[in-house]
């Protein structure tokens, strides 16, 4: 049975939650492979919007086993709250499996995330302050605490003691923050261990057995290609491998088990936090024009572009074919799901960035140097819109206004990947299936 990686093709918030929820019913396992509760994936349940941060969006279906893979960093308190929220909505979490190798976000990780951002001042990354970066730092430094350590009180105490010997002086002497005692941390974390113990599993073994038994797996990416630690707009990135390759390292399943790579692209682009964003529509005080400000405001208002995790207003801009091509390459995309096409019904004409210009040079590929990306001026092509036509009820490609069809075809052409799913609204039903085949 075919398995799929679902990956954000921009800077996150492309609508991964909606598309995962939409196609998850076809899979036996839905697996998160990286990131943590910096993610905010929206799924619609009845007439309610639910925000998922750690739980794979496939939890909405009883038959699909939700798995938190080894590449994820887990804040146990947040996970327990999320499970309680889901249970209160009548959604069972009983099948959840958490990798014994996933790393645990500790209280000092969150403190250090916030403190380091403060230290960076105007150069800050604009993180979600959930402790993601510091937790991955400890993982790579081989000083992390894993789920399996949390489950063994003796080992946990020892690891916390060792960690605090290093963290407390940093917290106190460098950042002037409060320090922790081993008892204090154990008092908070050991009750979490008692609740989560039943869900801990050897997930790599579990998933490889599933592959052998011809079961299907959906790997649900968090964040997006341009936030990837290696392939994103470093250092304005998150600390994990968001790209499709991360699905292997973050779960222990080999690349041969993956059949399709579905890239989620918004019909325009958004970004939360700092860093370069060539097609951003800025306010005049930030260097934009009056027209840009209006476009940015419209995208933000019509698209409800506010962060699910932090509530921050998302930066908005036109679709960028340069990054779409880049995402197609670094992920090996076989398919694209184009989301939020309905939001573009607000415009007379629609721009697509096809190249960048910087210092007299034209780039139709993603520039290697950050300085180029920071100063890149987008080269736009303008396409006719379908202003005022409500497309949220369209369920086939042919029902879309002709100009909307042309827009989709144009995006397929510039990125070189077929658009096999089109979302025209937040609900599961507000979708056009156009040849998606897992
Ligand atoms: P994710 O992080 O990639 O899962 O995306 P988010 O959930 O953070 O942000 C996507 C937002 O867009 C959510 O509020 C979704 O409910 C909403 N959404 C998803 N697809 C569509 C769509 O096609 N049209 C509209 N109008 N909203 C959508
Ligand atoms: P989903 O899965 C959008 C951004 C933060 C910041 C940078 C680093 O909902 O698409 P971090 O806290 O990860 O160290 O922050 O990454 N960021 C996201 N932006 N969507 C997300 O997740 C994000 N997760 C992190 O805003 O710029
Ligand atoms: Mg999100």
Walk me through what this model shows.
With 438 residues, the chain is of the alpha/beta class. The protein has helices at 16-23, 76-88, 107-120, 132-140, 147-150, 153-174, 182-196, 203-212, 246-249, 290-302, 321-331, 370-375, 402-415, and strands at residues 4-8, 29-32, 41-45, 48-52, 65-68, 73-74, 97-99, 103-104, 200-201, 217-220, 260-266, 269-271, 315-317, 319-320, 335-339, 349-358, 361-363, 377-384, 419-423, 431-433. The strands form five sheets. Strands 9-7-5-2-10-1-11-15-19-20 form a ten-stranded mixed sheet, with helices on both faces. Strands 14, 16, 17 and 18 form a four-stranded mixed sheet that branches. Helix 3 (107-120) packs across helix 4 (132-140) and helix 6 crosses helix 7 (182-196). It is globular, with a radius of gyration of 22 Å. Residues 8, 12-13, 38-41, 125-128, 130, 132-133, 222-224, 227, 238-239, 272-273, 308 line the site of 6-O-phosphoryl inosine monophosphate. Magnesium ion (MG) binds next to loops.
Defining key terms:
single chain, four-stranded mixed β-sheet, 438 residues, binds guanosine-5'-diphosphate, 13 helices, alpha/beta, binds 6-O-phosphoryl inosine monophosphate, 33% helix, binds magnesium ion, ten-stranded mixed β-sheet
């Amino acid at each position: 049975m075919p398995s799929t990686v679902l990956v954000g093709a921009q800077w996150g918030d492309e609508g991964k939650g909606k598309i995962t929820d939409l196609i998850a019913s076809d899979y036996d396992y839905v697996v998160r492979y990286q990131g943590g509760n910096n993610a905010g994936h929206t799924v619609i349940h009845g007439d309610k919007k639910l925000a998922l941060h750690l739980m794979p969006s496939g939890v909405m279906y009883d038959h699909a086993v939700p798995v938190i893979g080894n590449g994820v960093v887990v804040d146990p308190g947040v996970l327990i709250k999320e499970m309680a929220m889901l249970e209160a909505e009548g959604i069972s979490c009983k099948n959840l499996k958490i990798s014994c190798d996933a790393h645990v976000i500790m209280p000092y990780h969150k403190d250090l995330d916030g403190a380091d951002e403060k230290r960076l001042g105007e150069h800050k990354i604009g993180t979600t302050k959930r402790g993601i970066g510091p937790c991955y730092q400890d993982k790579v430094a081989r000083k992390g605490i894993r789920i399996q350590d949390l489950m063994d009180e003796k080992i946990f105490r020892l690891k916390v003691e060792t960690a605090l010997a290093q963290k407390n002086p940093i917290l106190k002497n460098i950042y002037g923050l409060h320090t922790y005692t081993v008892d204090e941390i154990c008092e908070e974390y050991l009750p979490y261990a008692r609740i989560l113990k039943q869900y801990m599993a050897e997930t790599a073994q579990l998933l490889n057995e599933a592959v052998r038994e011809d079961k299907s797996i959906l790997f649900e990416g968090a964040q997006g290609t341009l936030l990837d630690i290696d392939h994103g707009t470093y250092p304005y990135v998150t600390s994990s491998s968001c790209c499709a390759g991360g699905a292997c390292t973050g779960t222990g399943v080999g690349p041969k088990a993956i059949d399709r790579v579905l890239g989620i692209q918004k019909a325009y682009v958004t970004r939360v936090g700092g860093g370069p964003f060539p097609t951003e529509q800025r306010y005049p005080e930030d260097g934009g024009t009056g027209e840009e400000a209006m476009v940015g405001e419209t995208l933000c208002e019509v698209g409800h572009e506010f962060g699910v995790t932090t509530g921050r207003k998302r930066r908005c801009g036109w679709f960028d074919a340069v990054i779409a091509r880049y995402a197609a390459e670094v992920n090996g995309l076989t398919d694209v799901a184009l989301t939020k096409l309905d939001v573009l019904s607000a415009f007379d004409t629609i721009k697509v960035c096809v190249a960048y210009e910087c210092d007299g040079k034209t780039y139709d590929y993603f520039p290697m140097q950050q300085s180029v990306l920071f100063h890149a001026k987008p080269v736009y092509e303008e396409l006719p819109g379908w202003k005022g036509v409500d497309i949220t009820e369209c369920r086939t490609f042919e029902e879309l206004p002709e100009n909307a069809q042309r827009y989709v075809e144009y995006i397929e052409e510039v990125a070189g990947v077929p658009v096999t799913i089109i979302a025209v609204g937040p609900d599961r039903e507000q979708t056009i299936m156009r040849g998606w085949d897992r």
